[in-house]
Design a protein that fits this description.
two-stranded antiparallel ribbon; Ribosomal Protein S5, domain 2; 6 helices; 194 residues; alpha+beta; single chain
Length: 194
């Protein structure tokens, strides 16, 4: 019964116009540098998201290069996905990690979201995604495990897309839990640890 309900919802979503959806997720592994916290915007390419993608690609800024998510050079994923760094990129090692492991992980996360049905396969050529990417600058100072970094970014991307497409968290959940959810860094500030 649950599978039938999910399939019906996916078919409905495949016919629905998706103007602009937003989502975010946090996935962490044991090393602190592995945290992935993407923020995504998803929408039709002939709407505000598509225009934003064109503007991002056409308006390159030193230290904040925007690139398509790719499986490898010459293999761009669908839906078209642009990644934008939240950190100013000024280091070759950081650039290679961001435009290597993280870029590939985001591409796989997008395809995972399609495979899971969060993005209808029928909409793969009609939608665009903008992913704002966090990569801890300390990755240039430590020995990193690229498998861990890949896994956290892949999972976080798929999770953020899923949340965006399901409009999660819902306003009802937010209102019910507003005073139960503590912002981690705000709490550190209150405790005098910042």
């Amino acid at each position: 019964m649950a599978k039938k309900k999910a399939a019906k919802a996916a078919r409905k979503l495949g016919r629905e116009r998706i103007v602009l959806r937003t989502g975010e997720a946090l996935v962490e592994a044991e090393p602190s540098w592995s945290a992935a916290e993407p923020e995504v915007v998803i929408g039709e390419l002939d709407g505000p998201v598509g225009f934003s993608i064109a503007n991002l690609i056409g308006n390159q800024v030193k230290g904040h290069t925007k690139v398509f998510a790719i499986l490898n050079s010459d293999v761009q994923v669908r839906p078209a996905t642009v990644m934008v760094s939240k950190v100013t990129v000024d280091n070759v090692k950081y650039t290679n990690i961001l435009m290597g492991t993280v870029q590939a992980a985001i591409a796989h996360g997008v395809l995972d979201a399609v495979r899971a049905g969060d993005i209808p396969k029928s909409k793969a050529n009609d939608l665009g995604i903008i992913v704002s990417v966090w990569l801890d600058p300390s990755v240039t100072e430590v020995e990193i495990d690229h498998n861990i970094l890949f896994a956290t970014n892949r999972e976080a991307t798929a999770k953020a897309i899923g949340k965006a497409m399901r409009n999660e968290p819902s306003i009802d959940w937010l209102l019910a839990n507003q005073n139960k959810v503590e912002h981690y860094f705000h709490q550190l500030g209150l405790e005098g640890q910042l």
